[in-house]
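---------- Forwarded message ----------

FYI, see the D-alanyl-D-alanine carboxypeptidase record below. Original note from H. follows.
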Amino acid sequence: MKKTLILLLLCLSAKNITAQVSDKYKTLDSALTYLASNNRFMGSVALRDKDQVVFSKAYGFAEVEKNTKATPKTKYKIGSITKMFTSAIIFQLIEEKKLALDTKLSAFYPTVRNADKITIANLLNHSSGIYNFTNDSTFMDFAEIPQTQESMLKKIAAYDAAFEPGSKSDYSNSNYLLLGYIIEKITKKSYPENVAVRVIKKAGLTDTKYYGTINPANNESFSYAFEGGKWNKREEWHESVAYAAGALQSTPDDLTRFARALFEGKIISKNSLEEMTRMENKFGKGIFTFPFGDKKFFGHTGGIEGFSSSLGYNPEDGAGFAMTVNAANYDTNKIAIMALSAFYGQAFNFPEIKNISVDEKILKSYTGVYATPTVPLKMTIAYENGNLTAQATGQGAFPLTAESETEFIFEDAGIKITFGNNTMTLHQGGMKFEFKKDTP
């Protein structure tokens, strides 16, 4: 969706697994089973050693309401990992001489601000300066409603530029919506068709596709948030809103197979891969790097609805890691660290879960709307069914877990909130923000 490893959102655990867990991974399996059994995690994890999957197991439920247990074949929405697929298709079109990195956006969509200055390369590495439409305070008003290309283009074209193209990089989903539209314009085929033929078929994937309304009969998972002492189903965003920026679903096994195929030259050429993985301002072209000890992984994270996902691949030793999550009340970065520690035979800390009970009167005293001059978004703290939730302007609510009477966390995003007298301090990613209550 950030520490040593960066991968930049129930009562009983499932017992199914593709093969018996080897001794090497028993501690990892025990840790994930422990988290699932304590309402901290539901999802699936896979580890690949070159062409062989060495660990693959699912935990929790694909559909809580019907007690449908997840399996390694259960499909989860992967959010922004979709951007790796989109980028790969763009590089294929460049190889086919149908596009170039220096092609201007104005050749396709001249109404977008600075379109005559923005290149395909700018879109790929988020240096276009196009405002990220998911940051719009009205985003949740249309996230669940079908959108046409025309309606989304109109929204994107209406935004002022966030910065001058090429002056810096700042993550924007708008870039990849536009890249998806460009793919369709050039190929005269839909984005799902392009993904199916140009990536899924080439990589030999069996459980990856463009999502629609979730269908449990097709082994597709719902996503959940832990509220009021139970997992509650999250709303579904329409696929036309996520589109080429985040509308694919997959499994960890398939994701590691995709990464392996990408780096083995089965999808794009060596020269294209070098360009894709060349970092500028810490951004590749549809891909990022992250360290694990002295290892360098390439990949992406994803977050949509209540789903989060991570994919990483180390081309030096062929190690692949993927995690798809449909519910978390725990820092999933820690899960990634545990999984890769197990892969490399390193010790890791077994998860420790704190269960702190805070008086209802104290919890309710923290509710209200908080603001800070350093961030344009406001934060609403609400009390629901015995728990606090937090919600930033235009974003979904997330649960807060008490560590003390004044300190609360949302581990999945690495957020810590400390309450004072009509104040709130938010810590995330090494940054600190001081909020004051607007409406006590």
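H. also flagged this: The radius of gyration is 21 Å.
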